[in-house]
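Before relying on records like the one below, remember that each one covers exactly one chain. Contacts with other chains, cofactors or solvent are not represented anywhere in the record.
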Amino acid sequence: MAAAQAPKTASSSTAASSSSPLSSSSKSTTLASAAAGGVIVLNAKNFDSSLRDGKVWLIEFYAPWCGHCTRFAPTYEQVAQTLHSQQPTSPRKVNVAKIDGASERALSSRFGVRAFPTFFLVDGWTVREYDGNRSKELLVKFATETYEDVEPVPFLFGPFGPMGQVRAFLMRCGSEVVGMYEKLTKEKGLSPLVAMAILCSVGMGLGLVMIVVVGILLLPKAKLD
């Protein structure tokens, strides 16, 4: 299956921030999209709270510059309309969503996305990656029937496991550092060397604080008689 390779350069601070609770307006928009039959747009702010609804989620990671994604977009809308229209009568209720993986780099890292488009079926903490041909019929069938033939992603390395969370954390930290560097050089007018020196000093300071905290927590304690 052809797919556009994700660029290897780090994105700017517009990348995904850490997950936060959905606002009432964001949740209403998500529910309205599902009710209207269209593809639901997920991002770092509404991802975790949206997936707590107890339904199965078919999620596409795409990029605006990806030609494959652009050409498949109308078909994916048909996939969403089909699966959303089946929800009132089907015991397996599937929501169809998409994530801009080029901007939401933390979520992309969390799922281990390396190319666009990439499709995942999320059922609770069970995640399966779709590796077949891109068509309406096959994706609908994958979400409702043939998913059982696909081996789930191991929890340890999946988006909800420790490795996935670590990948997302590192990507968020990298995005914050890039954002701070751009702010120091572009807005504050500092030279690149001075900006890097400041960031290195801050990083070393935070590292020392963490070492001290961990050391205090691990201090041996006297046994009680």
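Residues 7-24 have pLDDT under 50 and may be disordered.
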